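Input (structure):
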């Protein structure tokens, strides 16, 4: 946790001393994540949404009336829940435990660079976001060795897109956002069930956030 705080401080210090940045802020909220298992055959895997928490430092750069470059550095929990028994990846043991809630948790720090299209309406500014994201896994919490951790990729390339609205009071802005995170690269190098059905596994997540920003320039 200490290194995340240090990175956040460095991120804020860099932004505050760069002339091309117009605002800095922080946001946090709920995450609703799941995993898509796309099989070559018609086999299906029933997974449930996992609810968790996320936060991010954010900054706008090269801002104009209708556009800005939005940078985010944050932490997010992803994963899924399910009722066993089944094996997600290749393992040597078949599990026949009775159905029970199982939580598959994967923690990431991420960096995203998003195009921000905005339309000022007085103090209110609706906006849209879209752009690439890079995830780095910091922790895996997997129940009863059902997943082979060696198959999981620590680095994932993804895409963010979303909508939000901000309200400005002098040099302070408050915002509400709904943002979708999709993975472009695979969550795992390979995924095989006990029935030897190969799957393409990717994360998805919906983020609902509330944030606050400080505008560095009086006229921005």
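Output (sequence):
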């Amino acid at each position: 946790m200490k290194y995340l705080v240090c990175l956040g401080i460095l991120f804020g210090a860099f932004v505050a001393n760069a002339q091309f940045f117009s605002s800095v802020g922080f946001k946090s909220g709920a995450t609703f994540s799941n995993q898509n298992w796309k099989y070559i055959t018609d086999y299906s895997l029933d997974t449930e949404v996992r609810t968790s928490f996320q936060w991010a430092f954010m900054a706008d750069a090269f801002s104009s009336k209708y556009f800005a470059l939005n940078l985010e550095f944050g932490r997010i929990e992803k994963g899924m829940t399910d009722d066993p028994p089944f094996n997600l990846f290749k393992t040597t043991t078949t599990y026949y435990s009775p159905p029970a809630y199982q939580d598959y948790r994967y923690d990431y720090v991420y960096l995203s660079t998003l195009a921000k299209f905005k339309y000022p309406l007085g103090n209110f500014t609706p906006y849209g976001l879209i752009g690439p994201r890079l995830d780095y896994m910091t922790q895996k919490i997997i129940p009863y060795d059902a997943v082979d951790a060696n198959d999981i990729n620590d680095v994932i390339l993804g895409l963010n897109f979303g909508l939000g609205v901000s309200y400005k009071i002098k040099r302070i802005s408050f915002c509400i956002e709904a943002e979708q995170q999709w993975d472009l690269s695979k969550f795992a190098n390979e995924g095989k069930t006990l029935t030897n059905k190969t799957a393409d596994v990717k994360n998805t997540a919906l983020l609902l956030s509330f944030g606050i920003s400080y505008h560095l320039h009086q006229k921005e």
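Notes: Helices lie at 2-16. The chain has one helix and eight strands.
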